[in-house]
Every structure is written in structure tokens, then in C-alpha cells.
């Protein structure tokens, strides 16, 4: 039995048993190509369309508004490129935020190279963006607003409904990266009003390498990958049927247990935060109230010691992180924290503990016992080095 404590679920999650069982038949028994007209193919095609129905239901969408992708990064890229192609004649101004995932920020940099002007909104100290900020940034040539639903580094949940209403008041298309939010907090694309929404299965106990892009039926996506015409001709390539079936099972399971999971995670998270903040010189980052149920993030006085603390935790069998998994090997301060006003040295002390429904109170108790001792040891080592 693996005795490690895994608390980096914002990076990736374990595939649930339900998702695994949903996938298995499509590796061996029902392995057909969904584009084939014989029975093997039609069985795979049925699985594909059943999965599309399940995913759409989980977020309040129509079946024909879901397009399967390889994950959140592709979904973000496709969303931005689609709107730019669709609205290219209307203007070349895009609004986003300084705290977006690199899948959005680097795509926007690419669009800047193609002549687009990019306005990045700066968050407040809690990682929030207000509707008033957005209103002030909108111009006559703004064609797209892309703002994440929940932040991967600090766990802040943003006011997407209000931000979307502001965008639509000016008839601007609104995209949200919901990779951290899907199957963790309630999402209904109709009540939120979003036009495009990105998801990734491995963030909610589905498999890696599969995701989805919601595109409101009135906003047609641009063709993204050329080939055999799959995904209604917009995203060619033989569909990852096992992965898609696993994603559908995972999001359905998450939606069915959303409230119970949230209660469980919030209780564990709050216990962790309460104990961690008793450590002198350690501070909670992100919105103290509007945050993901299982997300706790901190910085601590001393600076530049985040990576060392992560390694010390790992030596104790506790798998945590300092921020985005996409930049885990970098010694750079998380850009989200510097955007929120933390100096680079403090930002390099970041600690992110993100929980899943599989975490237990016993595990939190273990972390609460070990973390203060490790921080104290880290500080004593630093003092010896200075002396």
C-alpha cells in the first residue's frame, strides 16, 4: 500500500474507478473507429455521442455545443484562435488577466505577434478581477474577453457571471478557462452566459490527454485541425474514444456528488488553513472566502525557499507543490503571485496544497503535525547558512 499523501490535485488527479471502468471496453472489446460504418465503428460512435451528451448535461450545455479535445491547453488555444478568426474584421483588441494559465497567456502573446493588442487586467490582493475593471478596459475594437473561472495557483474563484454580463453589454464574446473549476464547483453555461468554456478531464479524476471545449451554438468555432472531418469538421483526427468515455464518467460522477465532495473538501481545507496559519510568518494567498473547496495556498517569510520546502515535504511522503504544474521545475516566482502584489522573493516561497475527495482527515492531521516542524527546520538551516 502506498503510504504517500498526495495533495497536488490542482496539477492532476487519480483516475476514479468509475472512469477507469468506463474506459476499459474501448481498448479491447469495442475498439472500433467511430468513423467506420460497420458494427465495431458504430459501437464506438455511440460511446462518443453518449459521452458528449453526458458532458453537455454536466455543464448545462446542448449536445452539439461540446467539442472533444486533447485537454485544457488545446481548448484554450482553439477558443482564442476561433474568436480571432470569427471576429477578425471587427477589431484586434483582446482583454484577459495577468493571472491566466500559460495556455492562455502564451496564446495571447502569439496573437500579439499577429497584430492584436492585448490588455491584461491586474488582480487585487485576493486574485480577484472586478466588473468595473473590465468595463474600463473595454474598447470599441475589443473582440474577445478571456478570464479564468478559478485560479490554479491560489484557488480564487472569479465572478464570471458578472464579468460575462459586462462583456455582453458591449456585444463581446466571452471565454473562460474552467479547467480548475469543472466538476468542483457548480457550472451552468446558460446561467453564467459564457460563450466558450475550456475543460480538462485529468483535473476531475478522468484520464490525461482528453478535454472539451464548449462553444455556444451561436458562436461557431473555426476549423482547428485539418484532416478527416471529425468533430463536425472542426477538429479532425480519430477520436480518443476510451479517454472521452472516461472523461464523461468522471464529470458525471463529479456532478452527482458535487455538494458532498465540496462539504468534505471544505472541511479538510479549512482545518488545514487554520492550523497552517498558526505558524509564525506564514500567510494565506488567494481569496479567503471565494476559493475552490479543496485549495489552500500560502507564502511564508524567508523567501526563495518554496522549492526546498516542497522537497522536504516529499521526503516526508507528502506530495505538494509551489504552484502551476506546468512550471514546477522553474525557480521563477509564480506569475500569479507577483501579479497580486507579492514581491518575487516572497512569491518564491509559495506552497500549494490542493485536495481531492480521496484525501482524509488523518492525512490532514499528518500534514498539520509535520508542516510546522519542517518550516522551523528550514528556517534553522537558513540561519546557519547565513552565519
Characterise this structure.
This protein has 2 domains: 5-13 and 258-386, Aspartate Aminotransferase, domain 1 (Alpha-Beta Complex); 17-256, Type I PLP-dependent aspartate aminotransferase-like (Major domain) (Aspartate Aminotransferase, domain 2, 3-Layer(aba) Sandwich), CATH 3.40.640. It has helices at 17-23, 39-58, 72-86, 102-113, 131-137, 160-169, 189-192, 241-256, 258-276, 306-315, 335-339, 344-347, 361-386; strands at 5-6, 66-69, 93-97, 117-121, 142-146, 173-177, 196-200, 211-215, 282-284, 295-300, 318-319, 351-354. The chain is globular. The strands form 3 sheets. Strands 2-8-7-6-5-3-4 form a 7-stranded mixed sheet, sandwiched between helices. Strands 9-10-12 form a 3-stranded antiparallel sheet. The mean pLDDT is 94. By secondary structure, the chain is an alpha/beta fold.
Summarize the structure.
The protein is built from 13 helices and 12 strands. The protein is an alpha/beta fold and 387 residues long.
Question: Which descriptors apply to this entry?
Answer:
globular; alpha/beta; Aspartate Aminotransferase, domain 2; Aspartate Aminotransferase, domain 1; 13 helices; single chain; 2 domains; three-stranded antiparallel beta sheet; 387 residues
Topology (SSEs and partners):
Elements: E1 5-6, H1 17-23, H2 39-58, E2 66-69, H3 72-86, E3 93-97, H4 102-113, E4 117-121, H5 131-137, E5 142-146, H6 160-169, E6 173-177, H7 189-192, E7 196-200, E8 211-215, H8 241-256, H9 258-276, E9 282-284, E10 295-300, H10 306-315, E11 318-319, H11 335-339, H12 344-347, E12 351-354, H13 361-386
Amino acid at each position: 500500500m502506498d503510504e504517500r499523501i498526495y495533495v497536488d490535485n490542482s496539477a492532476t488527479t487519480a483516475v476514479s474507478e468509475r472512469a477507469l471502468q468506463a474506459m476499459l471496453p474501448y481498448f479491447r472489446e469495442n475498439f472500433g473507429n467511430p468513423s467506420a460504418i460497420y458494427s465495431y465503428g458504430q459501437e464506438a460512435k455511440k460511446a462518443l455521442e453518449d459521452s458528449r451528451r453526458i458532458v453537455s448535461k454536466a455543464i448545462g450545455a446542448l449536445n452539439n455545443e461540446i467539442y472533444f479535445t486533447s485537454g485544457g491547453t488545446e481548448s484554450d488555444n482553439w477558443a482564442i484562435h476561433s474568436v480571432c478568426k470569427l471576429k477578425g474584421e471587427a477589431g484586434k483588441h483582446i482583454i484577459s488577466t495577468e493571472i491566466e494559465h500559460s495556455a492562455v497567456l502564451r496564446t495571447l502573446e502569439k496573437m500579439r505577434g499577429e497584430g492584436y493588442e492585448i490588455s491584461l487586467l491586474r488582480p487585487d490582493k485576493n486574485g480577484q478581477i472586478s466588473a468595473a475593471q473590465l468595463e474600463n478596459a473595454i474598447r470599441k475594437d475589443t473582440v474577445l474577453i478571456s478570464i479564468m473561472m478559478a485560479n490554479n495557483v491560489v484557488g480564487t474563484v472569479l465572478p464570471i457571471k458578472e464579468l460575462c454580463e459586462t462583456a455582453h453589454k458591449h456585444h463581446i464574446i466571452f471565454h473562460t478557462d474552467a479547467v480548475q473549476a469543472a466538476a468542483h464547483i457548480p457550472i451552468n453555461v446558460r446561467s453564467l452566459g459564457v460563450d466558450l468554456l475550456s475543460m480538462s478531464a485529468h483535473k476531475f479524476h478522468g484520464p490525461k490527454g482528453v478535454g472539451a471545449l464548449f462553444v455556444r451554438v451561436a458562436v461557431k468555432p473555426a476549423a482547428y485541425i485539418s484532416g478527416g472531418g471529425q468533430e463536425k469538421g472542426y477538429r479532425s483526427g480519430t477520436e480518443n474514444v476510451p479517454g472521452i468515455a472516461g472523461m464523461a464518467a468522471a464529470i458525471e460522477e463529479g456532478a452527482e456528488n458535487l455538494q458532498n465532495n465540496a462539504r468534505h473538501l471544505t472541511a479538510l481545507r479549512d482545518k488545514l488553513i487554520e492550523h497552517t496559519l498558526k505558524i509564525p510568518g506564514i500567510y494565506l494567498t488567494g481569496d479567503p472566502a471565494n476559493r475552490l473547496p479543496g485549495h489552500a495556498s500560502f507564502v511564508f517569510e524567508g523567501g526563495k525557499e518554496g522549492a526546498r520546502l516542497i522537497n522536504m515535504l516529499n521526503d516526508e511522503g507528502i506530495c505538494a507543490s509551489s504552484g502551476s504544474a506546468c512550471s514546477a521545475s522553474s525557480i521563477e516566482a509564480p506569475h500569479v503571485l507577483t501579479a497580486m502584489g507579492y514581491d518575487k522573493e516572497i512569491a518564491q516561497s509559495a506552497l500549494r496544497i490542493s485536495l481531492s475527495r480521496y484525501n482524509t482527515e488523518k492525512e490532514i492531521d499528518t500534514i498539520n503535525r509535520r508542516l510546522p516542524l519542517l518550516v522551523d527546520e528550514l528556517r534553522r538551516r537558513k540561519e546557519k547558512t547565513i552565519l
